[in-house]
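Worked problem 6 (solution included).
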Amino acid sequence: GALLKDGVALERLAEIDTVVFDKTGTLTLGQPDVTNLDALSQAQQAVALALAQNSSHPLSLAISRAIDLPAAELVDMTEHPGFGTQAYFDGKRVRLGRAEWCGYTGALPDQTASFLQIGEGAPVMLRFQDRLRPEAAETVRALRDAGLAVQLLSGDVPAQVDAIADTLGIETRLARATPAEKVDHLNALAKKGHKVLMVGDGLNDAAALAAAHVSISPASAVDASRSSADIIIIGNDLRQISQSYRIALAARGRILENFTIAAVYNMISVPIALAGLATPLMAALAMSASSITVSLNAMRIGRMK
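Solution. The predicted structure is:
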């Protein structure tokens, strides 16, 4: 259920001691619903829709699903990873994204939110509600049982990040993290000697996926994340993460066993050959037996459930 993009991805996966998860679209379904669309006028909805249609962020996709109106005509559309989308409408700059980036200075909400700002007007808040993936708790528990530290790294508001972390039993969490802050966090872990697996799916996670020791993205991730990740989960089932880790450990074990088998074989056979006690037929049979032995030992991993 996992596609290896890098030849050493499985080897690196066997070396990890820490797993860092993104939240939206990774531990959650990534299909949030807008809960207060009536906060926007029809004109504001048309602008929000035009901005949202040019982004693959889960919140933008939610806005696109919720608004059933013609989109406004915008120019100079630009997406800023970790902040939002910006364009111009009737000569006014319009933004959809993070609170501070859109000029919001009030108290931050206790749930996931995005903000729409048109010109110099006051930003309007859009609230969202997402759901946890049904296999998320099982996956986190399996990774912790395997002796791995699990952390949550998200650009979402602290209240939502804490709620998910508390539900899953994740102690270390970082909220409102920009893409650069995610990379800094992973680099700090690396400097402490940790081997980190990063799991993410969004454009905001692409740099962090590239910075990690090894990285995994679901097949539903945006192109940038899939390009940066070393392993792709084909079925979008988080349980493939812990299963891939177990396979990586088993594969490393088989490799070390085969090195041992080969070393013992050479320690016995080479002196016999040097002493002139081995005929060509004996040497051919012994070499074939060695190859068959290590191949059969490697095939034992295929019986894993």
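Discussion: The chain is about 45% helix and 20% strand.
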